[in-house]
Amino acid sequence: MVSGTSSTTNNNAATGSSIISALGTGSGIDTNKLADQLTEASKMLQAERLTTKKTLLETQISDFGLLRSSLSKLETAAAALGSADTFNAKSLSIPDTKLLSITKLDAKATAGNYQLKVEQVAQAQSISSGTFASVTEPIGKGTLTLRLGEWDAGLTGFTVDPAKTGATITIDDTNNSLTGLRDAINKANIGVSASIVSDGGSFKLLLTAKSGAKNEIEITAAETPGSPGLASFDFNQATRNLTQQQEGLDAKIRMNGLLVSRESNHITDVIEGMEFDLFAASATETISLTIAEDKSTAEQTIRDFVTAYNTFKTEVEKLVGFDTELKEYGSLHRDPLAKNLMQSVRNVLSSSVAGLSGGFSTLSNLGIRTELDGSLKIIETEGNTGFRAAIDKNFDMVRDLFVPKTSSSTADIDVTKFSAKSKPGSYDVVITQQPSKGMFTGANIPLAFPIDTTGKDYSFKVSLDGIESATISLPAGKTYASGAELATELQSLINLDTNIKDAKSTLSVGFDGSKLVFTSDAYGANSKVGFTAVGADLADLGIAAGAGTAGTNVAGTVNGVAAFGYGNVLLPGLGSDAEGLSMTIQPGASNGTITFSRGFAGGMTTLLNDFVKNSGLIKGRETTINKDIEKVEKDEEALDRRSEAYRARLMSQFQAMESIVRSLNSTGDFLDGILDRLPFTAKSS
């Protein structure tokens, strides 16, 4: 409202002044123009100062964007130096062959010469059912228990693989058909695929396991009374109502003369870091392949970093120093953050990498020197040293300089992780409490082997890591020739339980010569094994209801500061220099020294990230500058308001002046010739 009134007043005053001037009854001065000139003169210096300040701030915002872009490029180059794969790159030489194909070569592959001979490819077992008139025909109700293991040559004996988890399939009114059984088996996702095959107007269920000799299938039916039929799918030692179409076989490969077997034709661990697929076997062909270190990748990455830094330096110096092309200083030449950034980067380039002992600890050890102008230069050769010698003769030390590295003086203490809060250095670790697993040890088994389950109630419920299983029973009519065989069976049945599987808990069962020992696969105070219910005859196996011995969490100190232990993982105390390091402690560990180095690349990327991240230093500086711009804009608005008010005052004063001038003019006109009109002074006609 005030602004509008001022504008109206000014316009009226200007109009009045113009009219008066036009009529020639005023002073004759263009007061409107004079007010504009006086207002502009009053405003000019402050306006120029605000404009200059705003222009500088806006330029700084733009230049901080350029600075962020340059930093990001340098950070990318530094991050490539921090990747272990950069320094572990490998090359492969292999002749043409139809027996196998290389699918992956990792940087961790072990260099060397290898002779491979494929003697047998892996094969999956498949078994088929009898025929059914339709896919919707009822097949009976109850459960089918599928387990994985290995059949003997005559299909008379099955050895369960305790490391593999099977499934219990329930068939009820919702899925009582061949289609329902197929879908239930596939949904169990245990590595057995089910399909329905049409056979001349009738249908068969075909089950196919994963490839491998120990992925073969055992099926045991438990029929619901009054709804028979599922027994037709039995395939176990007692009854085999399904037909084996193909046995399971392992792949067999001879590497440098050593015969190894694998379940799959996709081989991932015969040569570390290299994966390949087998297509066929040959009794005569031997494949010779060579894996060699590829140092060129690391060398080029180092060269790229040097180039990236020199480009970064050139770009940033235009912003923080004198731009020789524009003949002026950059907008950030007085900004403390920008100057601190450049100095911080230079410090990292020239400083020793913390946490390294022996070997290379600075860029200069590699022949990378800082020139007088601050740029980096690679000295290729310098006597027996220089960049070329470092790459060719001391490549391991080059890798340790750039890549983050953890080490331990003992194999029982393994450093597995570090964080941005972890400070490089060496730390003494003292273990004050060993990690252990919960376990239940049975009594001596009173029976002699073999043990027959016929007519016995060998049922129980087990509690594992706080999870109680459903009722589990040893199969009826089965004989166990040894304690080891019985332990394997119990381990398989417990790990197969739905409650245990859903909780992702597992245990191992062993036999020490006279008793069964049940051990959780987890470490820590929550690791427990116990029996909450036992069948009438389970004492025959030395098992009674009760709790076992709980596990323990590891405890210890790092550099004398108490650490936090959970299971077998030890974490240094919050706020300590070692915070963020994570250690896996093996039973038997007592003490050791761990060492952590972030590497040159780690230190550089951490520094640069502090500046460029979304919540980083540059973002904070940009926020401050934007607030300063907003303040300048408010100051400009205030200046405009003051100038308008000043002009209004001038116009008001000019109007008053014009009024006085008009009055004086009228008085002058009145007085003009007055003597001629007054009595006694008038001229005679």
Topology at a glance:
Elements: H1 2-23, H2 31-81, H3 84-87, E1 90-93, E2 100-105, E3 112-120, E4 124-128, E5 142-151, E6 158-160, E7 167-171, H4 178-188, E8 193-199, E9 202-211, E10 216-223, E11 243-246, E12 251-255, E13 258-262, E14 266-271, E15 274-278, E16 287-293, H5 295-320, E17 322-323, E18 328-329, H6 336-350, E19 368-370, E20 376-378, H7 387-393, H8 395-402, E21 405-408, E22 413-417, E23 425-433, E24 437-441, E25 451-452, E26 459-464, E27 467-468, E28 472-473, E29 479-480, H9 483-496, H10 498-502, E30 507-511, E31 516-523, E32 529-534, E33 546-547, E34 555-558, E35 561-562, E36 564-566, E37 569-571, E38 582-585, E39 591-597, H11 599-612, H12 617-671, H13 674-677
Antiparallel strand pairs: 1-16, 2-15, 3-12, 3-16, 4-9, 4-11, 5-6, 5-7, 5-10, 8-9, 12-13, 14-15, 17-18, 19-20, 21-39, 22-38, 23-34, 23-39, 24-31, 25-29, 26-27, 26-28, 26-32, 30-31, 32-33, 34-35, 36-37, 37-38
